[in-house]
Amino acid sequence: MRALCFYFQVHQPFRLKKYRFFDIGSDHHYYDDFQNKYIMNRVANKCYLPTNEVLLNLIKEYGRHFKVSFSISGVALEQFELYKPEVIDSFRALADTGCVEFIAETYSHSLSALKSKTEFFNQVEAQTKKIERLFGVKPVTFRNTELIYSDGIGEMVAEMGYQTQLTEGAKQVLGWKSPNFLYCNAINPKLKLLLKNFQLSDDIAFRFSQQSWGEWPLTTEKWVSWLNNIDSREEVVNLFMDYETFGEHQWPETGIFEFMKALPSRVLGYSDFKFKTPSEVSQLLQPVAAINVPHPISWADEERDLTAWLGNELQDEAFNHLYSLEEKIRKCSDERLIRDWRLLQTSDHFYYMCTKFFSDGDVHKYFNHYDTPYDAFMNYMNVLSDFIIQLDNSSNFNPLPYKTDNIDSIIEKAIKLIEKDIIETSVKIDSNEICEEEKSVKRLKKLELKNIKDFSNYKIKKIIKEIDLNILSHSLKGMPQIVKDCFLDNLGKNAKKEVEEKIASMVKVGKDVIEEYRIVLLEVMEKHR
Question: What is the C-alpha to C-alpha distance for residues 119 and 450, in angstroms, rounded to an integer?
Fold first, then answer.
């Protein structure tokens, strides 16, 4: 018997709203509630709910012969509770089957393991308590944010009592070794390590709908034949991927759901692999060797390192400035400030500041609401500046009187870092790639709603399918009838009536509100242009 181990990452950040320098000191709510709610509802409807239903039906069909595992960040769980509680119910139904393992991770999907052992431990404890409260199970396996791992991080994980951790099967670590075995931590051998088979995982997660790929279209027969070609001595194949693979990154039209529905039958009927959870694999197998990972690895980009989050001076400055506040936070008892500090640690904020525009550039743009990494950095530093004011003025902490020139120095340094990074990046990046990047930004800025006249009815229907009718109604307010008709003529009878009534009922709607809705619609239009 050999094991096939499915693990899915479930995470959505609390995105920051557009926060200007002039907002510092006056606006203490940092989050884009509209965008967060919109994206959560969209991904829940396209991915979480339908995929959970698929998995639940597969478990009902195959019983304990089909198993999967999830790690769900605390901030994702918070958004489920706020915006889409039925997602919690659907995960709870999976938990009740006993065929699903829930895995521990950092609460805010943070990089705390790289900076603060205390905060790292606190976040893991907070996330596991939330998992236990919502689903009635206590995680026994650990995965760090984005599979980030090193010998030192593994030692801390073992200190927390975990016996198993998931990470990337990075080539720079394994060399000639195969990821298809159980390994252990080099410092504390009691911690067992499951390594991602990135080839077979990425065939599903990234290449499934890529028509330029030589193996497209991917079928279960083809994929299981690759599985059977693995040396019979290799004991476990770990398939680790974002849960948004299903329905969001790979749309339903690609056949991804049909692939998943057919996969268990093909694996169980035509191979000697059995579906197992990470904790089961850890109990069944013995480590074949320790692996040495002196420097952190991750599952991001081709390099499988930390450069997606901490690869330039902008990211380093924001990251270090944030964690320099830890001592003050420890003396603060204001729960709102503590929560804000935790949410500002979410790794996505630093990911948006990435200046890598090579082969992984498109990956960094997905779900990214900033035009450039420099916008992301400036916005984050503005928020952080206000947060520092709030922290210093907290009634629970009495530092020296606050000086506004502290903020001026932060902003001045931020501008210098941006200028420096733009110059250095322009030297490193091929001029053609810069040109394409600039064209991409300009295309979105030039795209107007009236351009919908250039879209086919097929594309308009696909756009409508992704857009909430409330967003569409607000976007069409004040537009010429010819633009409205392009959308209305592609709606069903009831939907068309609903949109027309919504538009007619809008009397006092601000231009800024309408503009926010139109930006969402334009982003979807750009995607289908």
Answer: 50
The residues with which 236 forms a beta bridge, in sequence order, are: 3
Task: Determine how β-strand 182-185 pairs with β-strand 192-196.
Answer: antiparallel
Return phi, psi of residue 305, to 5°. Answer: -130, -155
Q: Which of the residues 146, 235, 280, 317 is marked catalytic? A: 146
**Cα separation values, 351 from 21, 179, 316, 361, 386, Å:** 22, 27, 11, 11, 21
> pTM to 2 decimals?
0.78
As a whole number of angstroms, the distance between CA 478 and CA 517 comes to: 13
Q: How far apart are CA 190 and CA 328, in angstroms?
A: 36
Q: How far is CA 225 from CA 218, 221, 266, in A?
A: 11, 6, 10
Q: Is 423 exposed, middle or buried (0-12, 13-18, 19+ CB in 10 A)?
A: exposed
End-to-end CA distance of the chain: 48
- In which element (H, E) is residue 258 found? helix 256-270
Tens of pLDDT along the chain (529 residues) come to: 799 999 999 999 999 999 999 999 999 999 999 999 999 999 999 999 999 999 999 999 999 999 999 999 999 999 999 999 999 999 999 999 999 999 999 999 999 999 999 999 999 999 999 999 999 999 999 999 999 999 999 999 999 999 999 999 999 999 999 999 999 999 999 999 999 999 999 999 999 999 999 999 999 999 999 999 999 999 999 999 999 999 999 999 999 999 999 999 999 999 999 999 999 999 999 999 999 999 999 998 888 999 999 999 999 999 999 999 999 999 999 999 999 999 999 999 999 999 875 444 454 455 678 988 999 999 999 999 999 999 998 855 444 333 444 556 666 666 666 666 665 555 454 444 445 444 444 444 445 777 787 778 778 888 888 888 888 888 888 888 888 888 888 888 888 888 888 888 876 667 767 777 888 888 888 877 7
Beta-ladder partners of 2: 273
CB proximity list for 43: less than 8 A, separation 6 or greater: 12, 244, 248
Cα dihedral 500/504/510/515 (nearest 10): 20
State the angle between helix axes of 431-446 and 511-528 in degrees (0 to 180), rounded to the nearest 10.
130
**DSSP single-letter state for residue 449:** G
Annotated catalytic residue 132:
no
What residues does 274 pair with on adjacent strands? Answer: 3
Question: Cα dist. 226→102, 222, 357, 526 in Å?
Answer: 28, 7, 32, 36
5 contacts 281 by C-beta, under 8 angstroms:
yes
Token pair belonging to 413: 């340094």
C-alpha to C-alpha distance for 484 and 478, rounded to whole angstroms: 9
